[in-house]
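Lecture notes, unit on protein representations.

Consider one protein chain, 626 amino acids long.
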Amino acid sequence: MHVSHPRKRSLLLTASAALAVTGALLTSPSANAEAAPAAAEVSPHAAQTIDNIGASGAWWVNDLQHFDPKVQARVARLLFSEQGLDLSSYRYNIGGGGVAVTTPARAAEDFLASDGSYDWSKDNGGRTFLKYAAQYGVKDLIGFVNSAPAQWTTNAKSCGGRLEPEHETDFAKYIADVTDHFARQGVRLDYISPFNEPDNSFADCGQEGMPVPVDQRDDIVRALGAEQRARHRKTGIIADESSRTTQFTSEVPQWITQPGTAQYVSRLAHHTYDNPDDGRLGSVYETAKSVGKSPWATEICCFGKGSTGWNQEYDPTIDNALLMSRIIYKDFATSHDSAFQWWVALASGYGSDPATRNDQGWNDGLIYYDPDYATNGDQRLYFTKRYYALGQYSRFVRPGAVAHDVTGAPDGVEVSSYDLPQARTDSPGGTPTGQWVVVVNNHNTTDTALNLHFNSKTPVRASQAVRTSADENWAQVAKPAVSGHTVSATLAARSITTYVFDQKDQGSTALTGALTGTQSGKCLTADASGAAIASCTGAAGQSWSYDTQGTLKGVNGYLTAGSPGLRATAAATHDGTQQWLLNGNGQIVNEASGKCLDVGGQATADGSKVNLYGCNGGANEAWTRQ
């Protein structure tokens, strides 16, 4: 990702619209304005399992190699230790040699000599922090490539040139040799990303980069996959790291469906520099489901000025941290990504002042250092609130955590919930089977009440409450009250709070009620002939029960997607055709197809048909419960 030449970006939802989509799916309205707020609901059905949360070591390691080893060790602690971010993934940049790159810090050394031999002493900074990540036990170490070695590109540069087809096998062997070398050093790369943002040209040479046409991506994946398999390496491949979700959804199906390709792909990777709305994020999930792979969000940075869209700004405050936390929330709750990976962990572009917001810098780092360190000797580190915002997730939402959608959050509040079944602890009142982790973003300028109802694995007690706000960094704050299946908390204004609850399995409760279309105000009905909307009467045929299996069951059976279309069926299959995700933005998503429950033609009349359609964020795809 380069920041020297900003690209034009589309806008996300306006602030008011973005907050509105967090409204009450499957919740009942309060009896009056002064009554306690209706409880948001933690879905009884699991959405996805989280693989990792991390950041990349691109570029800044080339500067940090010149810092005092004590500062390097401190940075490693800040990123990888339990007292720091405790990152569960780290992206190591396998350099392309930096030939013709005009920004020295972005010219990563490669290991390949012109005669085909290797110099493993190269890339000292990159190797240093990769080893630190391994020593701290970071779960997923990922090697990613911006450019192949320049001798194999069409322009003999590390920027702007394509990989020559006749060198695809050479490139695969080189990457496998790098993987083998690090393995011998006790550093096992778990995944390789063989190209990064292949839809960009990188012709300005401000950084390393290699455009890869769609019809070459499968060739590279197959060559690398076959080489790794021949060496009995279990290193997975992630691709294609498209810079925009629109590129991802249109291009991934073209290359991954080529014969022999999908078997080598472990995860699908996308970036979100197009500032995707809920429709585009929904399309990421649909694309991933269509090819049977889990999606990862592997790069984002450089938003600001009150928007999650691309903007030049340096903002170390809670304002930008809340924007970051919103992006993480949406990646997990709408595109149902299994990983979130920030762009560069450190950066030097803080503009005119590392302590204050300004328009000369960039919001690309979590921690900053002086760009003039080489001449003035300044090796101080400057922290942004983004560092602490990422930690509100990375320190608590650990690999293996199971995401459960949360619906019905108050306006201006975003809630994500994770079941950590492996975390066994003792607590009064029973022996918990694990823990709940709940991360809450309060974008409101006032304190906000939150009631949260759990529909499975009862929270026994709150064991931690950690908050980042304008004047707090991972502060231990008052724990919320727990009564039965419900947690009650007061959210500080403009804050990100993580709650950890011990839990025990006391069975589960299903969500029940009528499903009402936001646009039509009409209720969902279904029988063997199909699904439609009708005026809400309270009749039994308009009531639905949602359970731990993710099924929606009415008096006529289970809501089922398939041929000849959406309908109610008596037989329970509990497969993807009968499993649904209740997204916090109001979407009801079929797990087999990744498509949304949609009122055709945005109709509002009784009898209007309801079927599946690609999620687009429209009001005809939003539902609430009465």
